Amino acid sequence: MKQLKQIAQYILSLSLALGLLYYVFRDMDFSDFQARAEDLTYGWIYVSFAMALISHWARAYRWNLLLKPLGYQHLSVWRTFLAVMVGYFANLIIPRAGEVARCAILAKSDKVPLSTGVGSVVAERLFDFIILLVSVALVLLLEFEVLFQFLSDLISEKFGQSLSLLPLVSVMLALGLLGMAGMVYLWRFKRAWLRKNAFFVKIESFLEQLAKGLLSFRSIENKWGFVLSTIVIWAMYFTMSFVIFFAWPETAHFGPRIGLTLFVMGGLGMAAPVQGGIGAYHWIVSRTLALYGLPLTDGVFFATVLHTSQTIMLLIVGGISLAISLILFGKDQKVDQQKAPLVKPQ
């Protein structure tokens, strides 16, 4: 039954991705894409590749710092990097499969139990979630009018010009505040009753994991290394998409503020429950760029260049990392089983 559910989720995710992709490209002339591609300066795309790899290496280094307090003092950044890239490779095939895949590789290479690896990834994602929230808040502060226009255009496109965004936002904010007040009341006075609900139990478990993950920072030995690697990860995430602006004359004049907006909006597209953000990323990036005066067809082309270039890089490097992991770590595991018993860290 569980396998059938997973298969159904995969089919639904793939169908959604293909549907979004068709919606975005339904009116596009692909011969124009070839003409635009001839104007690209591919050197900037290769620079973007290098920055992406730096961010992934920094993620591997930071992951090691999280695992050291758990008893794994001698993890190789190279091996952890391979695991990270396998995770990205898996995410392109099955959404949200990357976290388990990279932990499985690390379990095979360095005997880190799967549960321990997954727990460290949860803690890692919590810190990234905080950085993402800060980025979103910064974009809202700097580009509020642009994002407000984005929502206005979206609502007008779907429901007609007669529907005003301001009253709708006001009602949503009022309902949100009312809902928060209700949750605070239930949390303080009806918690025992709430725990009878499976959905509430999941929320409570998530909040507990959130608190545990944040507190885990205290046990990290190299705190500055953790902070600096986090900065490198997110600085490279931003820069690897921003430099693509310079690869095409139509976007070469865009500045860092537009780059930051595109970075956050593109991140929302990548967070959609579809393989590799396919379709969702193209839709949201093209419409975001349209707010800054770029024609929609040009925006779709730019989104395609940015998404496809990174996808190709992840497929190549992730595929090679998977092959190396299966060859080397499989061999290492056989040697370990013959020569030494498995000793669990304290």
Q: What does the model show?
A:
With 346 residues, this protein is mainly alpha-helical. It has a domain at 41-158 and 222-334. The chain contains 14 helices and no strands. The chain has helices spanning 2-25, 30-37, 42-67, 77-93, 98-110, 114-142, 144-159, 165-189, 191-194, 198-215, 223-242, 256-270, 280-290, 296-339. Helix 4 packs across helix 14 (296-339). The longest helix has 44 residues, at 296-339. The protein is globular, with a radius of gyration of 23 Å. The chain starts with a helix and ends in a 7-residue tail after the last helix. The model is unreliable at 334-346 (pLDDT under 50). Its main location: membrane. Pfam families: LPG_synthase_TM. InterPro entries: L-PG_synthase/AglD. It is found in: Cell membrane. It is a multi-pass membrane protein.
